[in-house]
Amino acid sequence: MSRTCKIKLLLFMLISAAFTTMVTATEVGKSDAIPSTFEFRPGVIVDPDNSGVVYLMSPENGIESIDISSGTRIWFTHLAQKPLLLKKKLLIAQYQSPEQHNSLQIVGFEITAPNKAAFKTNIILPTDVQVSIVDSMESSFRINASISERDLVLHWSYLKHAVSGIDNNANDNISDVSKKGIVKVNLDSMQAVHFPLDTKPGQSEARLPDFVSTKLAEENLPGPVLYGERVIAVVKRKSANQGITLFRWDHAGNALRELDLFGHGMTYRYASADGRYLLASKRSDGAKDTHGKYLWNIHSVDTGKKLAELHNERVGAWFFVWGTLLFHEVLPNSKLVNGKWLREPLGLQAINIRTGAPLWFTPIRDLIYRGELPPEMLQSTE
Fold it and tell me: Rounded to an integer, what distance in angstroms lies between the CA atom of residue 79 and that of residue 58?
């Protein structure tokens, strides 16, 4: 593979990783109470009600339900592989079986009966789309789901990178493929209708409130818009290590006092998956280095007050808070222990937010291709 091709492939993998780990704090334009369930990351759905449950992609090629407080498994099913959304007691998920390559397969089942399908549907996408649940070396398929009354709306995207042992510029027949689409499925008739990308079929969410969109334009802010329990907020980053300004409104649209947060060497990293908290960090110093390389600060979006300060080995991570527990994503990693390399899988880590002590960990099936790349072909000098 030429240097140009290898660089393009690496960029493709980085873009796929960023797309996979992107967390949407809330649905734009929603001005009522925060939905009780939310997507922590693709393939992980959190239901903080009902004593707290998380539904996630299992490395065992199925979906498992985990008790948030203890980390114990409640149930496991092979009925599907990737949870998409939870609506009341109905879990909607993607499954994959030996069908045609462009068949998007969706199943719904009650969380009280995880091995019995309430419905199944196969949606045929364009022939040059390879539907999958996890990435391959050259392609990735992503899907986001929402539901409005009795209509399931699916936004899908497909990216295929041309992998070749020769410079792509030298072969006009080799090219990348990028496809996107929207499908609405009526849950009564199971009829699927395809829509252009610039439409919003069956979505009942209101548009972004004017007072928020005006501020985004004035300050040239990229978002996302965060919905706390009592406020709507937008983050504006200052210069490096100088903290952030948090613009806030109540749900009626009344402007609240702007808050300046972090600073003192702290760098804002992430908003929590449900949009209620903010995480900033900096390198630890002094004797506390033994407790973690980085100092984390967790602040409330509603009040700006610090919820917790703790040490962690990672500079930051996608996270959410439930009671006195903090949950964060652990990316795959390899480390040397007693002279042997140990591989740590992608997973969900629960820690005590007051002490930083780890409580439990569960692995998550990884969507991203992290295998070897094709060897670079030697070019003959003859």
Answer: 12
CA dist., res. 156 & res. 36, Å (int): 24
The residue ranges of every structural domain in the chain are 3-195, 210-322
Residue 36 is classified by DSSP as S
Angle at 310 between CA 248 and CA 270, to 5 degrees: 40
Asked if 224 and 232 count as a contact pair (C-beta separation under 8 A), the reply is: no
* Single pTM value for the model: 0.82
**Nearest 5°: phi and psi at 325?**
-110, 140
**CA 291/CA 284 separation, integer angstroms:** 9
Over the stretch 187-198, which tens digit does the pLDDT of each residue have?
Answer: 888 888 988 775
pLDDT of 25 reads 32
Span 264-292, pLDDT tens digits: 889 999 999 999 999 999 998 754 445 57
Which of 212, 96, 218, 104 is closest to 154 using CA atoms? 104
Residue 342 burial (C-beta neighbours within 10 Å; 0-12, 13-18, 19+): exposed
Burial of 64 (0-12, 13-18, 19+ CB in 10 A): buried
